[in-house]
Design brief:
By secondary structure, the protein is an alpha+beta fold. Helices cover 28% and strands 26% of the residues. The protein binds flavin-adenine dinucleotide.
C-alpha cells in the first residue's frame, strides 16, 4: 500500500542506503525512499504518511547527516527533484532541492550578489535554510526573504522575521515535521567578474584548508562563542586520531572523515571522547553541528 501510493507521487525505491545518499557515506538500508516530482506530490505524500502515522525524514543532499547502520523503518523523502528556480529582478524563487553551489554560480555569472558566502556549502536550499548555514560571516538569515513551508498540511509563506534564525538554527529545527518547499532570496546587483573571482578565491581557500578529498559532513562541532572547536580539538591532541576507518582530519581537526568503510558508531565514539576531554580541559561542552539520524 505504501509502495503503491509513493510510486504514484514520485520516483520510488526500496533499495536505497544512507551511505549512498550522504556526503559522509555512512548508513544503512532505507525501507522506503521517494523523490516527489513537484510540491503537490510532496504535499500528498506528507498528508498520507501523517494520516497513517508512518515516520518520515526529509533530506536534501545529505551533507549534514550521520546515519546509523540499522535499517530505517520509515520513508525518506528526498527533495532533489524540486529543483526549479526563477530569477525575477531583485529576488530569486528557488525550490528546496536546488543545489546551492550551482545556484550561487549562476547568480554570480549574472551579476547578482546573494549566495557567494555559501558557494562551497554542498547542500540544497532546504537544508541550508533548515540549519541557517553560513560561512565568511554570512548566513541564510541575511538573504532569505520568506520560505514556502508545508505546515499542518497547508502551504504557507513564513517571513524572515518568523523563522527564528540564530547561529546554525531556524524554526524548522523545532518543528521536524514541517517541510521547506521553496524560498525567496533577495538579490543585489554587483559586478559579475568580482563575484565570480570572490567565489573562486573562497573555493580555493576551502580546498587548501579542508579535507575535501575524503567523505565528510563538514565541521563536526559548532564553534563555541568567541572560540574555535578545531583549536580545542588540537588542544586535547586529537588531530589525526583514528577509530577504525574514521579519522579526525590532519588537515582540519573539526572535520571527521570517512577513510573507507567508516561507521556511525566509530564517528560517534570519537565525538563523545572529544566532548569529554574538551569539557575536562576547557570546561566547554562542544555541541555537534552534524545531525545524528537513526543512530
Ligand atoms: C565539505 C563540506 C563543507 C561544509 N561547509 C559548511 C559551511 O561552510 N557552513 C555550513 O553551515 N555548513 C557546511 N556544511 C554542512 C552542510 O553542507 C550544511 O549543513 C547544509 O546546509 C546541509 O544541506 P543538505 O541539503 O545537505 O541537508 P541534509 O543534510 O539533507 O539535511 C540536514 C537537515 O535539514 C533537514 N532538511 C533538509 N531539507 C529540508 C527541507 N526541504 N525541509 C525540511 N527540513 C529539511 C533534514 O531533515 C536534516 O535535519 C558542509 C558540509 C560539507 C560536507
Amino acid at each position: 500500500m505504501i509502495r503503491d501510493f509513493l510510486s504514484q507521487h514520485g520516483e520510488y525505491h526500496d533499495d536505497r542506503y544512507f551511505k549512498d545518499l550522504t556526503t559522509l557515506k555512512m548508513g544503512g538500508h532505507i525501507r522506503h525512499f521517494v523523490m516527489p516530482d513537484n510540491p503537490d506530490d510532496l504535499k500528498a505524500i506528507v498528508a498520507f504518511l501523517k494520516s497513517h502515522r508512518i515516520p518520515y525524514k526529509v533530506i536534501g543532499n545529505g551533507s549534514n547527516l550521520i546515519c546509523g547502520e540499522s535499517e530505517y523503518d520509515g520513508v525518506v523523502i528526498c527533495l532533489k527533484k524540486l529543483n526549479n528556480y526563477i530569477i525575477d529582478k531583485d529576488e530569486v524563487y528557488a525550490e528546496a532541492g536546488v543545489m546551492v553551489p550551482a545556484l550561487a554560480s549562476v547568480l554570480a555569472r549574472n551579476g547578482l550578489s546573494c549566495l557567494e558566502f555559501a558557494s562551497g556549502i554542498p547542500g540544497c536550499i532546504g537544508g541550508l535554510v533548515y540549519m541557517n548555514a553560513g560561512a565568511y560571516k554570512g548566513s541564510m538569515a541575511d538573504v532569505v526573504l520568506e520560505v514556502l513551508t508545508l505546515k499542518d498540511d497547508q502551504l504557507v509563506w513564513l517571513k524572515n522575521n518568523e523563522l527564528n534564525f540564530s547561529y546554525r538554527h531556524s524554526i524548522f529545527g523545532d518543528h521536524p515535521h514541517w517541510v521547506i518547499v521553496a524560498a525567496r532570496l533577495k538579490l543585489e546587483p554587483k559586478d559579475a567578474h568580482e563575484l565570480e573571482d570572490l567565489i573562486a578565491d573562497r573555493l580555493r581557500r576551502r580546498k587548501e584548508t579542508q579535507p575535501l578529498d575524503y567523505p565528510s559532513a563538514g565541521s563536526c562541532f559548532r564553534n563555541p562563542e568567541g572560540d574555535f572547536a578545531w583549536k580545542m580539538i588540537d588542544g586535547i591532541g586529537y588531530r589525526g586520531y583514528k577509530v577504525n576507518d574514521v579519522l579526525v582530519s590532519d588537515k582540519h581537526s573539526n572535520f571527521i572523515v570517512n577513510t573507507g568503510h567508516g561507521k556511525a558508531e566509530d564517528y560517534l565514539s570519537i565525538v563523545y571522547q572529544i566532548q569529554d576531554k574538551v569539557k575536562d580541559k576547557y570546561g566547554v561542552k562542544l555541541i555537534m553541528e552534524v545531525e545524528k539520524f537513526n543512530c
